[in-house]
Every structure is written in C-alpha cells, then in structure tokens.
Amino acid sequence: MSLLSVEDALGRILTSATPPSLSELVDLHDGSARVLSQDIPALVTHPAFDNSAMDGYAVRHQDIETIGAELTVIGQSAAGHGFKGDVKPGEAVRIFTGAPVPSGADTVIIQEDTERLPGNRIRTKFVPGQGRHIRMAGQDFTAGEAALFAGDVLDPGRLTLAAGMNHSRLPVFKRPRVAILATGDELLVPGSEPGADQIIASNSFGVAAIARDNGADVIDLGIVGDDREAITAQVERAQAANIDVLVTLGGASVGDHDLVQSTLLACGMTLDFWRIAMRPGKPLMVGQLGETIVLGLPGNPVSSLVCSLLFLEPLVRKLARLPDRDRQATARLASALPANDIRKDYVRARLSRDDGGTLVAHPFSRQDSSMMKVFAQSDCLIVRPPYAAESPAGTACDILRLR
Known about the structure:
- By secondary structure, the chain is of the alpha/beta class.
- The chain is built from seven helices and 26 strands.
- It has a six-stranded mixed sheet, with no helix packed on it. A six-stranded mixed sheet has the order 16-13-17-21-20-18, with helices on both faces. The protein has a five-stranded mixed β-barrel with strand order 22-24-23-25-26.
- α3 runs parallel beside α6.
C-alpha cells in the first residue's frame, strides 16, 4: 500500500464520519460549547415592561419641550419597585436604570440634564427626543419567538440569552464518544517505578485532552500488553460502550510485536489505509469496525500528538457538529531549513514577533518524534510540503499554531 497524502487521508476519514443524532437535556451551567439539537423559543417577553435605560426622571415629553421647564417630583421608580401611580401634567418620577416607566410618562430625561430645586422640583437643561432612554417592552424578544436555533454552538452570549428566555435546561446533541487504548509490554502508568526495559505511558493524556477540547467524551481503556486476547477484550469493551471513535496508541504497524492491526482485523475491522506521507506520524492506521471509526496512532509521543491535531481534532469536531478550528497562519523562518523529501514535514518551532509585528518561527534543532519536551515548548508546527526546496532564513512559511 503506497503512502497517502495528508489531505487525502483527512478527506477519507471525514467522509466516513456521521455525527450522532441523539440528544439530551443539559443544565445551563453545563451547556458551554454544546450544540443545540432544536430551535429554542422564548418562554417570556423581554423586556417584560417599558423600562428606563438610564438614571433620571420619567416625564411627559410635552412638558419639557423648552429648556427650563419646571416639574414636581411625585415619587420614584426603582428596579423591582415600580411607581404605582400616573404621571400627570407638570409631574416627574425619579427613575433608575431597569425600573418600570410609570403610566403617563413617555420619555426619560437623564439626571445630568436636570437641576434640583427646593420643594421636590426640577428644572430641565436639555430637551431629549420623545421616547428617549426608554427600553420598550418586547424590543429584545417576545414569548414564543425562536431566538436560538438547532446547530447553534452555545457560547457565553447564547447561554445568557437562553437564561433570559427563562430556560434552565437546553436540548443538545450528545457528544461523540472516543475510547483510547494504549498498547505495549513496556508501558507503565504515571506514578509507577519503571524497570530497566519499561517506560511511562504518556500519549493517552495528550490525545485525550485533544479529544475533550474538541467536544468529545473520552473513555480511557488503559494499557494492555502486546497480547491479542487482552487487546480483543478491550476492543469488545469499547464496542459495548457504543463509542464513535476507537483510538489505539502504538502497535499499528506490521512488525512482529505490532499486534493491533492484525487483532482489529480479526475482530472485523475493515482497513482503509495505514501509511501517510508525513513526518512525524507515517504509520497512521484508519479503519472501520462496525459503526466505529478506528484511528491507530503511532507510539512515539510527538507522532501521536501531531496525528491527533491533524486527524482526530477535525474528526471529533465534525462528529460534535462544531465548526472547523483554524490553526493556520504564516510566519518567517528565523533559521534555514534543508530541502524536504517525499513526506510532508511538521517541524516543531517557537514563535516570536519582529519589530514590525511579523511572526517569526524558530525551528528546534532536534526534531525526534520521541522528544516530548521539545513539543511542549513549541508554539507551532512549520508545515513543509513534499519536495520543498531548501529555505533560507527569512523565507515565508506556513504554520499550524499549537496554542
């Protein structure tokens, strides 16, 4: 099987992805970044009544048509404690922001445009337009009006609107479920004491974070050794949990100790492809196991993270009905890069800005796919197409932002 381009690989992965159609009710506090599954009508009208947008005086406009008009203040209207009487000719009501506009008044003159006189009297210093500083009932939305719609991603503004429409819970699509299985006899959980031939398993934590950050619920299947029965048992456990994506870490190649691909095939997986023209991350495996999409990520930490950003992130976002995340930008190279070969290269780099504000990418001198510290210190990946020529310092380059 020949190497597949990154673009073709992503296209094939996304073509096989169908977002879950099930929905659930969530509390407003749990609604951030969830996607509405149906239109949401307002349960109340807002504003529920004419109210003041400013502190000042509620008046009849015909009483203040000339500067210097004098009015008698007959009471006050505060938020939650409206004035119950009527405003008659020559009268005003002290009013505060959000308070109901009393009957008979049609304008609010702000307090800065008035002068207090003895005996509960005021004199006007300005003539506002009729209706000024009054928020009319229903000017935002009315009861029964749909103001949020299926497919809307709930953000701070939409959650605020939902609360204002008097909803305490909202119908949203269920999150896609992603199960992660790490494989390898050499792996131990963090906090263990590794023996001479063992290492601490790290990949699953970064991969899980990428899945969660893009809208998935994650099931950690833990670590299994290079054992077909153990791998099969965890695959069956994942299928029983009705997952949408199964991510395996390591063992997806075809070496003597790489058992994941052959075990999944024995479980009924249809293999789509498993080699990508990219660096790091060449041995990426993609297949279909029933309704579940299988992503077999390389075992090296940086390879698994880069593949997750390029393939798992857009896959999860499609399944979660979230818009694409755009990490693309351009920068200039701080140092030269050699010519590239057949594979698309993702070079770890730091970012800075020059005196003119242009982004400058500083590639790390060491790019081994096992070096977690370099990746953690990187701000971006410099994207180099296949067969790219040698690029001197100052050359424009495409980058993918990591943060």
